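Notebook p. 47: complex prediction with pyridoxal-5'-phosphate.
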Amino acid sequence: MWQLKHCIRDISTFERLTGIKFEEKDRELIKKTTAKFPLSITPYYLSLIDTDDYKNDPFFKQSFPSPMELIVDKHDMRDPLAEDRDSPVPGITHRYPDRVLFHISNICSMYCRHCTRKRKVGDIDSIPSKDEILKGIEYIRNTASVRDVLLSGGDPLMLSDEYLDWILTELRRIPHVEVIRIGTRMPVVLPYRITDELVEILKKHHPLWINTHFNHPRAITESSKEALRKLADGGIPLGNQSVLLAGVNDCPRIMKKLVHKLVQNRVRPYYLYQCDLSEGLSHFRTPVGKGIEIMESLIGHTSGFAVPTYVIDAPGGGGKIPVMPTYLISWSSNKVILRNYEGVITTYKEPDRYEPVFCDRKCSDCKLQLKLDEAEEIKAVGVEKLLCDYDDTISLIPENTDRMERRTDRKDDE
Ligand SMILES: *Cc1c(COP(=O)(O)O)cnc(C)c1O
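Predicted complex, structure tokens below:
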């Protein structure tokens, strides 16, 4: 509570506490920036900034406004992931078949400068009311396909223990909700939020997973280690989602150090995100090649569980698309040619005999004897549909393309 009350929200306080002095013309530009995207830094996070070299400091860059945020690049979008369009009720983004994103808080202790939901930061109008949250819970209750609920925001841990407990209890009462996840940056920006009392509450609602958001190895301090230890000791599986940020962590050496420190603290690197196309982030973006280069430096070179999946969240709302270096370099009818992380090129001989099992989705008759409940209910989607035996589809054709519009027999086609 002390940290929240003393968040740094203006330039003068920042200057007073850090001893950094901005020139008058810079102050004007910074003020213009905060008028569009507000400033808030926890005293704890501020203490991580190296004031002697703040211009190159990863924490300064992630927390202090840059006039470059005012640049709107020609490819920038307000809501690049179409979260608002894929929203059946306010607060819910339902993009994937079996899981939803549930925005239960619009506020954060610190405003990350690279926030993908910058459009909503500090916007009083978009703080979800209890009524809105009830409607979200109602949507999940009425949508039996949802087995995984991802609580996000803002930072869900900005809510009080009691309120969180209530939301988690309501969600747990829905029989088809198998897992609940919380996305929070508290272990990074305000580790003291992870109290024993909070962990006691979270523990009641297992299986509960937490993903946090470390971008730089130096953020793993004694205080954040303590927070992670409490969560892990509470039996909560921990993951980390990093964003690849120019000038912050666009370096294989930094990323390797980060993933090593994460696994030492029982946090599994989960995703490495390509910085998305939200407005005002152009100065943070790297080429995709930088991410591939980082993945190249991790895969095979270090423990498999220390390697995150590098993803690009598809502009327009297609969801996360994994990208990685190419390891399958050639292929014939009975051999695949692969290369490993050292550059060794190797041959995998495929079986001379393989009897394919024709799948007609009648699992009860199948010799594989899966005995999976409801296995036949799964319907193939996307490329999976092209691969399966029981569906005659031969191509996936996006709708509404010029090519499709030109077709005169469109109806018969379907
Ligand atoms: C990231 C995301 C999820 C969760 O995706 P996973 O790959 O399961 O972690 C769910 N819904 C939305 C809208 C998302 O952006």
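Notes: The CA atoms of residues 105 and 159 lie 7 Å apart. The pocket of pyridoxal-5'-phosphate is lined by residues 93, 95-96, 99, 101, 150, 320 (CB under 6 Å).
Next step: compare against the earlier run before touching the bench.
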